[in-house]
Write a structure and sequence with these properties.
Layout: H1 4-7, H2 15-27, H3 33-44, H4 51-64, H5 71-80, H6 91-103
C-alpha cells in the first residue's frame, strides 16, 4: 500500500522530513510497509537530501537491515557523508556508519572521507 503523503507533494513536506521519520522508526525498531515506501520516495528525491539527511537515512537503512534493497540510494547517500561539515556534529554516528559499512555492506564502492 502506498502512503498518500509520500506520493504527493505536501506544503512543508520534504525529503528531509521523511529521512527524520525513517531514522526515528529505525531507532525504535519499527519496520512497516511504509518503510519501503519511504525508501522508494527517497530514492526518487535523493538530490533534495543534504549531509544530515544522508546520515539519517544510511543509519536507518543499516539499523533496519535494508542496505541491499536500494544499493544505488545507499551509494549516493554514503558519498554525501563528509562532504560538508555536519558530520562533525555527529561524529559517533558517522563512526557507527563506518563500522556498519565494514560489516553490512563492504561491497559498496564508496568510502568515508579521510577527515571523517
Amino acid at each position: 500500500h502506498r502512503a498518500w503523503l509520500l506520493r504527493r507533494r505536501v506544503a512543508g513536506g520534504e525529503a528531509a522530513d521523511v529521512a527524520t521519520l525513517l531514522e526515528c522508526s529505525a531507532y525504535f525498531g519499527i519496520q512497516t510497509s511504509l518503510t519501503e515506501t519511504a525508501l522508494a520516495y527517497l530514492a526518487d528525491n535523493d538530490d533534495e537530501l543534504g549531509e544530515q539527511g544522508a546520515i539519517q537515512v544510511v543509519y536507518a537503512m543499516s539499523a533496519l537491515g535494508v542496505t541491499g534493497t536500494y544499493p544505488d540510494l545507499l551509494l549516493k547517500l554514503f558519498r554525501k557523508i563528509g562532504a560538508g561539515t555536519f558530520w562533525e556534529k555527529d561524529r559517533v554516528r558517522v563512526f557507527q556508519l563506518w563500522f556498519c559499512q565494514l560489516l553490512q555492506f563492504p561491497w559498496l564502492d564508496a568510502r568515508l572521507r579521510r577527515r571523517c
